[in-house]
Amino acid sequence: MKSATLLMISCFLMFIILHHMKEVEAAPQQTKGVCELADQFPGKCGKEGSNVCINEMQKKEPEQKLRCQCFDHPTVILAWKKHICKCRYDC
Fold it and tell me: What was the pLDDT predicted at 61?
């Protein structure tokens, strides 16, 4: 009788422990979002366009690790050439 009671209590405790572990594993993890910046700057992108954009955008977001793309603006207004920088960072 004692062994049957001990077995039932052991099974009950194991069930509670395993159930609690599943709840802990299923807890949602906080993930960072991705923020995006875009701006226009004078001149063309050139061969190092992404680096040009990173340097220009670091002035706006100095503490962020930026990933940038550079696009030459398709239209020229008043003979001014421009490029567009689109950057992303974890926020």
Answer: 77
Question: Counting beta carbons within 10 angstroms of the beta carbon of residue 4, is it exposed (0 to 12), middle (13 to 18) or buried (19 or more)?
Answer: exposed
Q: How does pLDDT run across 35-54, given as a tens digit for each residue? A: 898 999 999 999 999 999 99
User: Is pTM, for the whole model, over 0.85?
Assistant: no
Residue 48 CA to residue 83 CA, distance in Å, equals 12
Strand partners, 2: none
Q: Are 33 and 90 in contact (CB under 8 A)?
A: yes
Q: Which residue is it, tokens 């063309």?
A: 44
What type of residue sits at position 22? Answer: K
Q: Residue 69: pLDDT above 90?
A: yes
Which ranges of 30-70 does DSSP label H, i.e. alpha helix? 49-57
Q: What are the φ and ψ backbone dihedral angles of 85, each rounded to 5 degrees? A: -105, 125
Give the separation between CA 66 and CA 87, rounded to whole angstroms: 6
Task: Determine the pLDDT at residue 76.
Answer: 73
